[in-house]
Amino acid sequence: MKHISPDSGTGLDRYLGKNVLARVVSDLLNPLFLSPLVIFIISWILQLPALTTFLVTSAALIFYTIIPLILAFYLIRTKHIISLDLPVRETRSRLYIYSIISAFVLFLIFLFNLESLDPLIVIISAIYFINPIISLLINFSWKISIHTGALASAGAILLGLTFFYPSLASLNSYIFSLTILFLLLPVMVWSRYRLSVHTLPELLGGIVTGFGLTIIELFLFNNLW
């Protein structure tokens, strides 16, 4: 695995730079925070019991956010990656693999507790396990944006309720999906481009990959499950 030169270390000034707003947007909508939020929203739409919603969201926070974040800081400390932006394509694979393993463990936990959960929760966890695998394969030759991909996937999940789970479609799911796809996603594109982390093709590649894969997976799970 390629190591980053010690000269590539980051400080607060380098981290924030002159693009404070872009940095705030990028960090608030970080993929590590999006997945638990989506799980919580889906649990709320499904009207799961409060305790179940709490447990499911807490598990998502542990396996989608806390564990990958700890590992990311470890990789930064050991100079395997420069920052959470992951600007160097060749150094992304290790964090991808760690995140995939963590997501797979959560998928198994949800799957083994299917009787007490709605199948849609398990399906969402499967999507959050499968998408990073495909993104990792793409990353071997092309660096697409994880940020725009994750945000597009979140929008696709909520929009997919309309097409594949009409009984769950509601004004709330419309509002959430449209807000993500037509408001937050363009802001994210601006943010990542402004921070010079990605080119426009890489940002659009993330959107197409995240949205397209998620819609396809929802279609397949809806017909096969």
Describe this entry's structure for a reader:
With 225 residues, the chain is an all-alpha fold. It has one domain. The chain is 74% helix and 0% strand. It has 9 helices and no strands. The protein is globular. Mean pLDDT is 91; it is low at 1-11.
Outline of this structure?
This is PAP2 superfamily protein. The protein is mostly helical.
What are the SSEs and their pairings?
Blueprint: H1 12-16, H2 20-28, H3 31-45, H4 50-77, H5 93-112, H6 119-139, H7 146-164, H8 171-194, H9 200-224
Transmembrane segments: 20-46, 52-75, 95-114, 120-142, 149-168, 174-191, 203-221
Protein name: PAP2 superfamily protein
Keywords: Membrane, Transmembrane, Transmembrane helix
Notable traits:
single chain; 225 residues; mainly alpha; 74% helix; disordered N terminus
Q: H/E order of the elements?
A: HHHHHHHHH
Residues in helix, %: over 70%
How many structural domains? Answer: 1
Main sheet summary = none
Q: How would the global form be characterised?
A: globular
Number of strands: 0
Distance between the termini: 39 Å
Structural class determined from secondary elements? mainly alpha
- Give unreliable regions as ranges: 1-11
Mean of residue pLDDT values: 91
User: Over all CA atoms, what is the radius of gyration?
Assistant: 17 Å
The number of helical runs is 9
Query: Which strand-content bin applies to the residues?
Result: under 5%
Transmembrane segments: 20-46, 52-75, 95-114, 120-142, 149-168, 174-191, 203-221
Organism: Fodinibius salicampi
Keywords: Membrane, Transmembrane, Transmembrane helix
Protein name: PAP2 superfamily protein
